[in-house]
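Chapter summary example.
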Amino acid sequence: MDIVCLDLEGVLVPEIWIAFSQASGIPELKKTTRDEPDYNKLMNFRLGILKEHGLGLKEIQETIAKIDPMPGAKEFLDELRSLTQVIIISDTFTQFAKPLMEKLGWPTIFCNTLEVAESGEITGFRMRIENSKYTTVKALQSIGYETIASGDSYNDLGMIKASKAGFLFRSTDKIKQDNPDLPAFESYDELLAAIKANLS
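The structure predicted for these 200 residues follows.
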């Protein structure tokens, strides 16, 4: 029994925080998990900047509404889902992910939740589970699944390395250099072929 575990941002859709950085004109918000391996540190940094600029959930959701999946992402996902079970495991938040899941045809996503005040200020965040991508993959394996995983960032390495097959997708040169043992792909066709070759 195989299950494919995919990252969301950078793999199927553009990075939400980079899009919001451009829309808001705040360059500090460009920083992502490709730059900062410590997710809690990264999120607390982001929330501090949002507070400083008086920005909340509404402004970010307005940017997300304009984001489309990467060219070919939905077709890739549709074909993959016709072959095997697929779960998107992301460190994003339910309040961000919903419009993107609609554009991708409502795949299953495991992600986190934002704490939002009545004013719309994002006051905090609740992680579904510690080290969520790795922990989720290990949990799936414990109930009889063999996992195949792909992602682009530091926070994907745990699930990629813990899986029977794992691939970097459109990752950074630094992450690729630091992990020469991991196959790295740039196109959905290459990734799909690699996943197909590892399906039981």
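To summarize the output: Residues 39-53 form the longest helix (15 residues).
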